[in-house]
Each structure stands twice: as structure tokens, then as C-alpha cells.
Amino acid sequence: MSVDGFEQGLIRVTELAALAAAQTMGYGDSHSSDKVAVESMRRELDLLPMAGRIVIGEGERDEAPMLFIHEELGAFKGTEDENVQGVDIAVDPLEGTGLCATGAGGAVAVLAASERGGLLEAPDVYMDKIVVGPTARGAVHLDAPVAENLRNIASAFNREISDLTVVVLDRDRHRQLIHDIRRAGARIRLIADGDLSAGISAAVRGTGVHAVMGTGGAPEGVITAAAMRCLGGEIYGRLTALNKEQEQRLEEMGIRDVDRIYSAEELAPGDQLLFSCTGVTDGEMLRGVRFFGGGSRTSTLFMSRQRGIIRFVDTIHREDDTAPVHFQ
What we know:
The chain is of the alpha+beta class and about 325 residues long. Helices cover about 30% and strands about 25% of the residues. Strands 1, 2, 3, 4, 10, 11, 12 and 13 form an eight-stranded mixed β-sheet that branches. A five-stranded mixed β-sheet has the order 7-6-8-5-9, sandwiched between helices.
């Protein structure tokens, strides 16, 4: 398969996962929404001409039946043939399971891929994060006071702090962070889920998002880093365990320095990074899946760091070739 063919294959993976999840949208069953997205993504990944390996997945082998860390995928999985492309894959088949279950905006199906070793194998723990776009790259530090980071971001944009909007997950653990941001004078957009999508928004002009701050999932942090490498933005993150079980996961993964701050280049060091994200429900940049008589329509953001391309892919999936096509 050609480079373009492989990239189209990855786009199809997230498109079909989004379609599967969207069919459960609004039913109030986040587990089922996640399950159908996982099953679809795994099935399509297994068709690609690669020796794939999951480095960020749905959980450990004893917790998730599919897409677990170190699971092998692809038409040539397990092969040692040097002529077969070895690919490391980070997936979130449905980021925003609760959003999909309730019909709220911002749910996506997303994956990142790279050559072997191009994505950090982060355990399913938490990560303290700060994400900014290209304009504020180099202007923030994870351990800097909130007010100092906001001053530096405002200076980079040649604006006042009061002009900034910061996205924060609406969690009890963020009470002090929310207080500090408001005290500094910036606006806050609280979200129920989906800090990965928010991180991408921070790196794209016109979304009204200038930064993402707070503690979220470490796997999402690695996938966000892959997107930042493609978009020229930055993420700084520190792996954090919120309970004994997560501490054990860090130990099992061989992570001893819990104070280490990772940059985007350390979280996603690959030279051949690929990123595909398809909307499940309407979000800042991507429309959700739209169903019509005889088919459906998806919106996808695809990026290749090596090729320097960013694509917005609008696809109509026809199930009945006699039905009229809707272009709105």
C-alpha cells in the first residue's frame, strides 16, 4: 500500500469508529458507546498492511478485551520481516464517552501512529498538563505559577490576560486551579470531558482557546503530544498517580522519576507521526456524524508531521446508491 493509501486507511479507522459510536449517541450508555467504537477500530486496524503494536490503548490486558497495551494488530502482526512496516499506535476509540452517551458536543474517535519508539508507552494513569499553541510555545512551564503562565501567554499573543480563555476539566481536583485562573483575570471554559480535543483547539487559531490546564488522562496526553508535534504547539506533562493502583502501574512500566516533566518531543518523539481524529458529536473544529436516508457523513482532521500536511476530510458514506446525497 502506498503512503497515501496507508494514510487513507488510518482515516477510515477513525471514521468507522466514529460512525459506530454515533449510532449509540444519546442512549445514556457510555460503556456500550465505547465498546462499539473499540470493536470497530480494532477490526479496521487489523486490515492495514503493517505490523502494528498498541502502546496507548483501552487498558491493561486483564482489564480490556481489546486494544490493550502491547496488543499486536495489522495484516502482518507478529512478523519479524524487515520489509514490513512496524507501527506503534496510540488510540482513544471514543474520547468523551459521557459526551456521546448524553449527546453533548466534543466526542471524537482518535488515533496517533508512528514508527517504532515514536510514542511514549504511558500507563493508564493521570497527567498534569499545560497545552498551548505555536504562538505561546516556549512561554509556559508546568511548575510556573498560574498567573505567570497566563501573563506570558497574553504577552505572546500581544493581548491582556482578560482576553484569554483557558479550558479546564470540570473536576473537584481543579478547584484551586480554577480559583487561580479567575484571580489572574482570564476566562475559563469548563468541560465535562474531552481535554484531548481541547488541546488541539488551543493549537488552532480561531477556536477562541488559548491554553488547556489541569490534570487529565496520561494516554490522552501522549496523543495530544502527537497532534502538537504536527501543529507546532506544545504540551508539558508530568505523570501522576491518584491512587495505589496507579502507583503500581507506574512501577510496572518502569517509570521511577515521577517528578519528570515531559515535553511534546519526549511524549511523541517520532519523525513519522500520523494523527487522525473524526468527530462523533459536534465540536469546535469537527462536525459530528450526520445520518441521512441512505448514508452518513463524517468530518475528520488528519495530519502527517513528516509530510507537513493537515487535512480536513469530509466524507459521505453511501449505504444506498439510489438515495439522494445530502451536501449540507
